[in-house]
Amino acid sequence: MPRHRLQPRRSLQPLAATAAAAASASGSSKRTPLQALGSFASNNFIPLGLVLAIVCGWFFPAVGVAAAEANAQLVATVCIFIISGLLLQRGETAAALRATSALAYGLLAILAVTPLAAFGVLRLPLAPPEVALGLAVFCCMPTTLSTGVTLTVASSGNAAVALLLTVASNMLAVFTIPPLLSLVLGSGAGVANFDAAALFRNLVSTVLLPLLAGASLQAVIPGAHSWKKNHRKLLSYVSAVCLCTVPFMQVSKASAARLPLTPATLAMAAAAALGVHLVLLSANLLATRLVRFDPDPAQHVAICKAVVICSSQKTLPVAVAVLTQLSGVLGAGVGFAVIPCVLAHLIQTVFDSAVVSRWNAREAAGLPAMG
Q: Could you list the residue ranges forming a coiled coil in this record (predicted)?
């Protein structure tokens, strides 16, 4: 019987700026400066939006505070995960089920091993302490909802494995995050009245159920799948706007409370976020050299790319949703906790884009991509 092999998927539409940056240079040379600026803004919509959200929230907090008081962050969070569920590719994850060793490694790394970095983060001399807390929470998150798949496609990796790791880890994280944070917050974060059971209920209602609802829309509503394919970019923009509004509201509350935010705080948070990502990426690169995911060398490399990328990244929307639930404990200080998460998201996207470019350049030169 012929053996079916997982083939790297190249047909997925890019969801993030990193894949869009691979557009041909010949087309861009004919664009006007205004068109080039518009293209840059479109391709980098989420990073630019997050930076703008932090700046506007800090200097113009009134709107963000009013939106937070109206509970707009709950609406935004639910919308993010409904759209994320709607954008999931049905059927493509089934092919990845045969890559059992890759899935086992990826889920273990994402949900159990990489969160251990949170204990080290809490011991970093970051001020105010909410900065360390926010980055520690970020370490406990599942993989990114779209960037990991996008980068896997851009690197000619196994997109089916990346998709299944994304879907499975984000659903399982609803059950793993509360006990993980109980351990982390009990190790020195000083949040004495953290309620893991309440967090679990909130994650189910604001993350898992909206994600499942969005995914089920494709099967329940006739024509929803085709409509999604034709409006994928619009849905991505709406999701990005919702994502940016939550940090905007949290930072606005921190600014209104006159909490001090200095360039030194931002620099330390960025340095810590970069350090954490380098540790996670290096650990996964080394670990995958010790494992054989497929006897076919090309398939093994394709799967390794998916596993390394997805196991090294953490998702911002779930982190923001978790920190929003902790706002009753942290108060206005949750605005500080959100900032390192945003910085970590930006840093991992830019850094991993460079890693993918290096892999592609090595393959083009006839060298092993991950050598």
A: none
pLDDT tens per residue across span 347-356 = 998 899 889 8
Say what the pTM is: 0.76
Q: Give CA–CA dist 131/333, Å, rounded.
A: 9
- Is 262 part of a structural domain of the chain? yes
Closest of 161, 164, 109 to residue 314, by C-alpha? 109
Residue pair 126/272 in contact (Cβ under 8 Å)? The answer is: yes
Cα gap 202→206, rounded to integer Å: 6
Domain that holds residue 191: 44-364
- pLDDT (tens digit, 9 = 90+) per residue, 183-236? 887 754 445 456 778 778 888 888 888 888 988 887 888 888 889 889 888 888
* Longest Cα separation, the chain: 69
- Closest Cα partner for 270 from 363, 369, 345? 345
Residue 9, SS3 per DSSP: coil
Question: Within a domain: residue 18?
Answer: no
**Number of domains the chain is built from:** 1
- Residue in the structure block whose two tokens are 């505070």: 65
Closest CA to 57 of 266, 254, 317: 254
In a domain, 16, yes or no: no
- Rounded CA-CA distance 328/257 in Å is 15
The two three-digit tokens of residue 92, written as one number: 């493509």
d(Cα 156, Cα 208) in Å, to the nearest integer?
30
The predicted structure's pLDDT at residue 177: 92
Element (H, E) at 353: helix 334-364
3-state secondary structure 193-239: CCCHHHHHHHHHHHHHHHHHHHHHHHHHCCCHHHHHHHCHHHHHHHH
Please report the sign of the dihedral spanned by the C-alpha atoms of residue 323, residue 81, residue 143, residue 44.
negative
Spatial separation of the C-alpha atoms in residues 130 and 341, rounded to whole Å: 11
C-alpha distances in Å from residue 310, one per residue of 226, 240, 263, 359: 28, 20, 31, 16
